[in-house]
Protein: ATP-binding protein
Amino acid sequence: MSNVNVKRLIENIRSGTNIYTPLVELVVNAIQAIDQKGIKNGLIQIEIIRSGQEDLVDRLADIDGFIVKDNGVGFTKSNRDSFDTLYTEQKITDGGKGFGRFTCLKYFNRVQVASTFADGDTFHDRSFRMGLDKDIIVDEKTTASEKRETGTAVEISGIKSVKFPDKRLETVSRVIVERLLPYFVDKDRDCPHIVIREAKEPSNGVSLNDYLGKENSQIVEMRVEQGTFTLTANEEAKDFQVRVFKLYAPRSAKSKVSLVAHRREVTDNPLQAYIPEFAEEFYEAGPDQDLSKGRNFVVKSYVFGDYLNDNVSLERGEFRFQTDNDLLNGISQSEIEQKAAEIAQSAIGSEITERKRRKQERIADYVSAEAPWHRTLANEVDFDVLPMRPSNQDIELHLQKKKYEKEIQTRSQVAALLKSENPDEMGEKIIQLMDSISETSKNDLIHYVSMRKCVLDLFSKSLEIGADGKHKSEGDVHDIIMRRKKDSEDLDYEAHNLWMLDERLNFSSYVSSDKPLNKPNGDRTDITIYNRRVAFRGENEASNPITIFEFKKPQRDNFADPSSKEDPVQQIVRYVNQIREGKFKTPTGRDIIVNGTTPFYGYVVCDLTAKVKKWLEFEKEFTPMPDGLGWFRWFGNNSLYMEVLSWTKLLRDAEMRNKIFFKKLGID
Structure:
C-alpha cells in the first residue's frame, strides 16, 4: 500500500507536457513490456474512445480517451510493485523516471489497468485503477486466468477541462509517429507493430509502422553529409547526433527541430526561428520531375545525445538546461537547435539557397527604389535573420538597428583613440574612423535629400486643382511646409520643411506656426521665425533676424479688395511693430529679443493674379522681380524687407536649389 498525496502531486506537474503526453507514455510502456518479454512479434493496439454527439463536418464525436493494448510481459509482481512506487527506478536503464504514469491523471479522470501475467507455468489476471487520494493502486483484483498469453490493456478516459485537439484517426496517428519516431527508426532495436483504430470499429485500423520505409511513405529520412556536432561547456565536450526527415502531406506547415531524450521527443520548435527560409512548406516533383504528381513536405530535425538524456525533466516536457545561451550554465537549448537547423539546411540544399537569393533580391529592390541612402550599409549587413519574405518595415528596422550599432561602435572607438597615449597607432586609426564617419554621414545626407524630393512632389500635387474643381486651402499647403497650431516647442527641429522657403530657416531656434504669440486667442501669423545668433555680418556683429510668412489659398485674391480685413502686407507690418514694442512672448514665456537694428523679413505667398499684381504695383508700391513671379519692397522705418511670392515660384526655386542633389542620386 502506498501513501502518496496523488492529487497534490498531479497539481504540481510542471508545464511542458500536453494532452498527448499520457498516450505517448502508455505506448512507450507497452514497447518496454514487449522488450522485457523478448519477443519478435510484438503488437501494440491503440483504440480511440469517443463520447458526445458527432459533428456535422467530420461525422465524428470528440475523443474522450484511449485504450492501449500490448502483448508484453504483463503486470508481474515486480512490475506491479514498481507501478505502486513513486519515482521507481525499475526502468532507469531505459531512461525511466518512475513518474510518467501520473501525467495520465493530469489530463484524464480515469486510469484503469487490466493485465495477464505469468508466474512460472501459471497465468494470472490483475486489474486495478489509479487512485486519486493516498494510494496509487486501488480496487486491485488478482485471479487465476484461463488465458495463455500475457499482455496488458490500459484505459485512460474522462478527458479533463479541455477538448482533445484532434478528431481524425489519421491526425492522431501522425502525431504519435512524430513523437515516437526515434523508436521507429532505431537500427539497434526492432519497433513492435503499432496499430491505431476506433474502439467501436476494431476491424479498421492504421499501421503506424507504414508511415516509414515503404514506397510513397509519408516520412522519409534524408541523407546528411555530417550528422554530428560537438558543443563544449565548462571545458567538457558533449556530442550530438542529428537525423533529418521529410514529412509529406504535413499536418502542420512548419518545419521543426526536435530534441529527443531516451528515444522520446521532448521539445519541438520551428526551424524558421534559426533559419527563416524554413517558414514555408517545400515541394517535391513526382516521377520524371512531373510537377502535377509532386508532394508538399516539411522537414523535421531530431537531435539525440547523452546530454539530452541526462538533463530531461521528470515530466519529459522540458530540459533542465537554459533555453538561451548562458556561459555560466552550460550548453543551452538554442545552441543545440541552431546546430541542428544548420544540418537540416545542408540536407534540404538548393531550395534554401534559392529562397535566400530571392530574399536578397527583395532587399536589394527595396534599397534601390525606396532607401538609396542605405546602399553602402546594405552591402555590409547580414540579413539572414530577416523573415523569408521581409516587408519594407522589416528591412528598414533591421538597417536602422545596424546603423545605430555601427554609430555606437564608432563613438566607442573615437573615445578609446582620444585616450590613447601611443602616437604611432593614431594615424592609421584616425583614417579608418574618418572613413566610417564619412560613410554614415553620406547615408544620412542621401536619406535627407530623398525625403526632400518626396516633399516637393507632394507639394506640387497640392497646388493642382482637385477632383471637385477647386484648389486646396491655404491650410493644406501650409501643413506641408509646417503643421499648423505648432511651434518648435512641440515639434522636433527636423519636423518641418521650412527649407522650401529659405535654406537659412533650417537653423531657426524658435518657430511658431499659425499660433498666437502672446495669448491663447491673440493675433497670429502663419509662420514666425526667430533665428539663433549664428549669422555674422560686417564686423562680426551678431544679428537676430525675424521672419514672418503669410499664406493665401491658391487662386484666392479677395484680400486685395479695398474693404478686406485680411491685407497680408498690412498684417506683417503690424506684427513687426508689435514685436518691436515687446508685446509678444513665446507660448512658454520666453522673451523675443529684439533691438533697434534687428532686421525683419516678411513673405506673402499667394497666386499672382492680375488683380493682385495691380494691387501690389499701384497700392502697395512693390517692385516686380525679374522673373515676374514675385514682388519686393523695403520698409526702411521698420527695417523690414518684404517679398510677395507666387506658389509657383516657391516650388520652382525649391526644386532648382535641390535639383543637383536629385540628379546625383538619380531621382530627378
About this structure: The longest strand covers residues 236-248. The CA atoms of residues 25 and 101 lie 7 Å apart. Confidence is low (pLDDT under 50) at residues 513-517, 524-542. The chain has 16 helices and 25 strands.
